[in-house]
Amino acid sequence: RMRSDFQIHSMYVSKPEPNARVIMSFRNNSTRQQKKEQWVP
């Protein structure tokens, strides 16, 4: 999780105008996908 979050963070920070809400929503979506993957084989 740490590496993926860092990559996403650095990717958005590299942009001229990073949007915190976009980062949070993207991270939340990724966590939801991870939970689904854990439950569904």
UniProtKB/TrEMBL annotation:
UniProt name for this protein: 13796_t:CDS:1
